[in-house]
Structures are given as C-alpha cells and as structure tokens.
UniProtKB/TrEMBL annotation:
Organism taxonomic ancestry: Bacteria, Bacillati, Bacillota, Bacilli, Lactobacillales
InterPro entries: Cation/H_exchanger_CPA1 (IPR018422), Cation/H_exchanger_TM (IPR006153)
Signal sequence annotation: none
One GO BP annotation of this record: regulation of intracellular pH
Keyword match Transmembrane: yes
Name of the protein described by the UniProt record: NhaP-type Na+ H+ and K+ H+ antiporter
Organism name: Lacticaseibacillus saniviri JCM 17471 = DSM 24301
Gene3D superfamilies xrefs: 6.10.140.1330
C-alpha cells in the first residue's frame, strides 16, 4: 500500500474507532482500534511494510515528550529517589526475571531476545495511572510514585530493549561495556536533552524579542522539538534520545519558560495541537498492532514449532509473572514507607494489587516490538520475531482487558479507563495545584466552577431578554444549558441511568403528550389539514419512541436515533429551501409548531405544580433547560415569519460580549472570595478567551 494511502486509511480508522468508543464506553478505545485492525487485516488481507529505522523516531519522540510536558514537576522532584529506584531497579528486575523466564519457556528464543522482550513489556502507560486516581483513593505518595515511575520507566525499558536487540543482531555482548555504555547514554542523553531544551527556549524568547510572535510558527517549533532533540542526541551523540526527550518535556513548561506568558493564546493552540498529534499517533499504533497480529499468528502456525494456543499460553504466563513482580514490588515499597513513617494504617494488599493492575501496557511497548528488525547482521531471520510480536501484543491486550474487567469489580466504580491518546481531556495532568491547594475545602473543582460561571452567564442573558430579541437570547441560553448538561453527565460515573436523564425523559414525555393533546384540538377545530396532521402525529410518536429507546440504553443515543435525527434535519432543510414555493403551507407549519410548543410548555408547568411532583424535586437545571427550549421554539417561529437575519446576527454578537463579560466577572468574584486558586482562575479565563476568539472567527 502506498504511504499516503496507508496514512489516510489509518487516520480514517482512528476516527471511526473514537466514534465507536462513545457508544461502547466501557471498553478503552485502544482495544477497539486493535479489533478494527484485526478485522481489516482478515477481511481485506491488508499488510503494512514497516521501516523500523524511523518507527522509533516517529512515535517514541513525540509521545514521551508530551508525557514529560504534562507530569507534575514538584511531585517528581519530591520523590526523585524512589521514582528513579522503581523506574530503574524494577525495570531491570523485570528484564532479568522476565528474560530468564521467557528463555526457559521458549528455548528457541535467545536469552538476549528474551531480555529485549521483557524490557519492552516493562514500561507502563502514565495516563492509565492518572485514570486510576479517579477510581480509588490511593495514598498520594504511592500515586505520585507509580505515575513518575511510568514516565521514567519508558526510557529505562527502551534502553534495555535496545541492548537486547543489539546483542541478538550482532551476536556479541560484554557486560562491562554494556554497563559503561548505559551510564554514558543515560547521563549524556539527560544532559543533552536539558541543554537543547534550554537552547530552544532561549531561541523562542529571542524570536519574541525580535517581534516574531506568530502563534502558528511557535506551535510548529514546539511540535518539531522532540524530533530534533531525538535525532541530534541519538544520531549525533550516540546517546539516549529517549531520555533526552523525556527531560526536554519536563523542562518545556518550567516556570522559567516565560515565553508562554508573552503569548497567552499559544498555550491553548499548542495544547490542542498536541492533543491531535497524540490522538492520531496512539490510534495508528494500536491499529498497526491489530493489522500485524493475524500476520504474526499465521507465521507462528506456519513454523509448526508452536501452535496458537501454546503461544497464547506463553503470553498469559509472561503477563502473570510481570504482574506478580509489580504487585510484590509495590507492596514492599508500601511496607517500607509504613515502617519508616510509623503510621497506624498498615499497607493493604488490595492497594498493591490496584497499582499492579493499573500498570497497563500501551503504545511504547507496541512501538518497541514493532521496531524489532527482520534480519540479523548475518542475513538470517531474527529468531522468534513473530512470537515476540505475538507475546507483546497479547500482553498489551491482556493488561487492558484485566484492568477494564477487574478494576470496576475491586473499586465498585464503573468509569472508563483512560489511556494515552484517549479522546477524553487530560486536564488533570496539567494541574499542579495538588496537595496544598486541595486541602482547602472551600475550593471548587473545575467542573463546579464552570457550572457556576455558565449559570451566571445564563442569568445575565435572561436579564437582557426583551420582546424584540427573544430568539438570540434563547439561542445563547440554550448553548450554555447544553454545556452545563454535558458537565453534569460527565460527572456521573454510575452504571445506571443518571438521575438527570431520568428527570429529563419524564418531563419530555409530559411535554410531548401535551403537544399531542394540542394537535388533536387543532384537528377538531379544523385549524390543520389532514396531511399536516398525519405528518405531525408521526413525528411526535417517533419522538416518544426515541425517548423509550434512550431509556433502554441508559440515556446514550444509538446509531438508529442519530440516523432518524439526520433524516429529520434534512427534511427541515428542504422545507427552508422551498418555503418560497409553498408559502401558505409553510405558514401553516409555523402556526402548528407555535401552538404545539405553547401546549408542551403548559403541560410541563401544570405537571410540576402537582403536589406529588413537587415532592419528587425534579432537577431544576433540567426544568429550566426544557423551558428555554420550548420558549426558543416559539421565538423561532416568530423570527422565521419576520425575516430579521441581519438584526439577529448583530444582536447575537452583542449578547455574546455581555455573556463573556459575565463569565469573567464570575471567575474574578470566585477567585476574590477564595473559591478558586490563581492557576484555576487563569485556566478558566483562558477558556473564555479561547471561546471568544473562536466566536469572532465564526461570526467574522
């Protein structure tokens, strides 16, 4: 397959996988991508020829650099000793024990290749560890330790992998030389990464001083930074480009890096660009894993030395050994901490088990094993390469499956496991207001602050509502209501239908039944023709059916519902396009729409006034949102009949400015009263600025 076609095809599959992940929320998107890759390989017999020499550069450099950018530096420095110990000694213990075990398990696999495979299986996904923090309250020191270890062990695992592969390819290995080389490439790599990052930061500041403050230019320069550093250190100095990009990432957003403050919008643009890069690269890696898995399985079957079930048994045994090592190491560390601090609460094996299971394998493992060369220096095939790929792939999949299945059972919390490259925002990784800031019980979380700010904007817009601007005010209020609803739904991690959705479904049914009563009344009074009556009746019955489907699927829209909504929107568009040809029928439709909206609003109001329904205490946000939607329908009918599009646009721009000002005032008031940290207030203000800039671009 040609390079451009392959890239376009893989990126398309990444998009499809992330769409599917919104409907299959309990399964990590990485597993969905792997399954898609397997399906494509089996159905279309797709093969991708991998050039292993650039594979590490293309994937390792940006992923590790981005991890370093997001890691909290204070915790890393505070626990530098234990983190480095875990990242080095635990990885080396995994390499030694895992390598010997694999060589014993598969004698045909050289010991050096077994060490290489164990080394590349050792690194864990740092985002999965952060996701664990949302599920269970780990001790802060343990959480920061495993998080920091997951960042550094990528580098130590890749170095061990590189030596194991080199020893297998060349057939030569000297322990003394290897130890000396290790310290050289590690120390020189770290120093070179720091020096180059400082030099690049200095270059950025110099460009700003010269008046070169193009945000796009600076964003591209930052995206290119890990590739440049990796190439210069790995190729130029023969040191560890992996360690260099990790160190560079840690220094990239240091407090002394003041050029970011000079370009407030640069932070937003850069973060979103990095999200896209990681999103695409991580997705492509797991797709390639799925595509390569059937090929590796077929190669194993053709050798006749190992059957598929035997190979799967090998992978399962390797995963159990590696998991046991992590659990034992974590439990020993907690005991050591307990004896050193002499606290009353004794270490729990459950916590150690959670830290072990959360250490899922991810993109780094896959990138490494896919980069194993096909041939030795002698020209012979690399021994057991297909089996190595199969074992590594199954270990990655097993670690994901075990985490997805067992963590909810252990923690009793059914929220999706996040991994590197998940579509979910990773803002938690950027927040360094951790221990000290969270101790103040007055502080609001980011979600709580956003809801308050949005509600303030809604109230300000409501105060601006007049008879002449009903439509623009209600449209903007609807946008804010949708934002609040999305936040409240994201905060709900239960495995049942959220109470907010339950209340909304009940009230929507009440409103639709009120519309049906009004529709029958229009028919009896002869105010609607038979054709319009039947079409409207079918539409209302379809909406009731959709509500039942939503209830059956825990409030999640199905593909069938989305197709129905698309069809309905197409019909509305066609009506708008041809309204001039059938003006009388168009006016009749507007009249019916207005009368139904009025009746639906009255039905909900009457329902909520009943004593038994008052006692239920329906969600006020849901009630207000539905009232706004019905009012908006009424206002939309008036607006369509008066054709005031230019006046509407001008009023929307004026009201948006008022709403943004209300948001900034609310953020300022919360910060002044001690409900927000300075960093959180700055982050919220940046979000307002970004939304305002986006609105100006859209409206301009």
């Amino acid at each position: 397959m040609h390079l451009v076609e392959a890239i376009l095809f893989l990126v398309s599959l990444v998009i499809v996988s992330n769409v599917l992940s919104h409907y299959i929320v309990s399964i990590p998107v990485s597993l969905i991508q792997t399954a898609l890759g397997v399906g494509v390989a089996l159905i279309f017999h797709l093969q991708i020829n991998l050039a292993t020499d650039w594979f590490m550069l293309l994937f390792i450099a940006p992923l590790l650099f981005n991890d370093g950018r997001h890691f909290p530096k204070r915790e890393l420095w505070k626990l530098r000793g234990p983190i480095i110990g875990n990242a080095i000694f635990l990885v080396f213990a995994t390499i030694l024990i895992g390598g010997l075990f694999m060589h014993w398990l598969v004698p045909a696999m050289p010991l050096s290749a077994g060490f290489a495979l164990a080394a590349i299986i050792a690194p864990t996904d740092p985002i999965a560890v952060q996701s664990l923090a949302k599920r269970v309250h780990l001790p802060d020191e343990v959480l920061h330790l495993v998080s920091g270890e997951s960042l550094i062990n990528d580098a130590s695992g890749l170095i061990g992998f590189k030596y194991g592969i080199a020893a297998t390819v060349t057939g030569a290995f000297a322990l003394g030389d290897a130890i000396g080389d290790f310290f050289y490439i590690a120390i020189v790599g770290a120093i070179a990464g720091a020096v180059l990052m400082i030099a690049i930061n200095f270059a950025r500041q110099w460009l700003l001083q010269q008046g070169i403050n193009d945000v796009i230019l600076h964003t591209i320069l930052q995206i290119m930074t890990p590739f440049l550093i990796y190439l210069l250190v790995d190729e130029g100095l023969n040191a560890s480009g992996v360690i260099a990009v990790v160190v560079a990432g840690l220094l990239n957003n240091s407090q002394r890096n003041r050029y970011i403050a000079a370009l407030p919008e640069l932070r937003i643009v850069t973060e979103r660009t990095w999200d896209i890069v990681v999103y695409v690269l991580n997705g492509i890696i797991f797709l390639i894993l799925g595509i390569e898995l059937p090929l590796a399985t077929g190669a194993i079957i053709r050798t006749q030395a190992v059957n598929t079930w035997q190979a799967f048994g090998y992978a399962l045994a390797v995963y159990i050994v590696v998991l046991t090592l992590r659990v034992a190491w974590g439990y020993a560390y907690m005991w050591w901490q307990w004896m050193r601090k002499n606290t009353q609460k004794r270490p729990a094996i459950r916590t150690a088990l959670l830290t072990g299971i959360s250490g899922v394998r991810g993109a780094i493992t896959l990138v490494g094993v896919l980069a194993v060369p096909a041939l030795l220096d002698s020209g012979d095939a690399f021994p057991e390469r297909d089996l190595m790929l199969f074992i590594a792939a199954i270990v990655v999949v097993l670690s994901l499956v075990v985490a997805v299945v067992s963590l909810p059972l252990i923690t009793k919390i059914w929220s999706p496991l996040q991994l590197r490259g998940s579509a979910i925002e990773q803002s938690a990784l950027n927040d360094e207001d951790t221990d000290d800031d969270q101790a103040d019980v007055r502080l609001l979380t980011e979600d709580q602050a956003k809801i308050f700010v949005y509600q303030t904007a809604v109230r300000r817009l409501e105060s601006e509502r007049r008879e002449t601007n009903q439509k623009p005010v209600l449209d903007l209020m609807g946008e804010y209501q949708a934002l609040i609803r999305r936040i409240e739904l994201d905060r709900d991690t239960s495995d049942t239908i959220p109470p907010l959705i339950q209340d909304e479904l009940v009230l929507r049914r009440v409103g639709i039944r009120g519309e049906l009563i009004a529709l029958d009344g229009l028919k009896k009074d002869g105010q609607i023709d038979a054709v319009r009556y039947k079409k409207t009746l079918r539409a209302l019955e379809r909406r009731l059916k959709e509500l039942n489907i939503l209830e059956d699927h825990y409030g999640q829209p199905t593909l069938h519902l989305m197709a129905n909504r698309l069809q309905l929107q197409t019909r509305h568009l066609a009506t708008e396009l041809f309204k001039g040809r059938t003006q009388s029928r168009y006016q009749d439709r507007l009249f019916v729409e207005k009368e139904l909206a009025k009746s639906g609003l009255k039905a909900i109001s009457a329902f909520l006034k009943k004593p038994e329904n008052r006692a239920h205490q329906y969600n006020r946000q849901v009630i207000y949102s539905l009232i706004v939607q019905y009012r908006n329908r009424i206002a939309s009918v008036k607006d369509l009949s008066q054709h005031k599009s230019q006046q509407y646009e001008r009023e929307v721009q004026r009201l948006r400015a008022i709403a943004f000002a209300a948001e900034r005032t609310a953020i300022h008031d919360l910060a002044e009263q001690g409900y927000l940290t300075p960093r959180m207030a700055q982050k919220l203000n940046q979000g307002v600025n970004f939304t305002e800039n986006a609105a100006e671009l859209t409206e301009g």
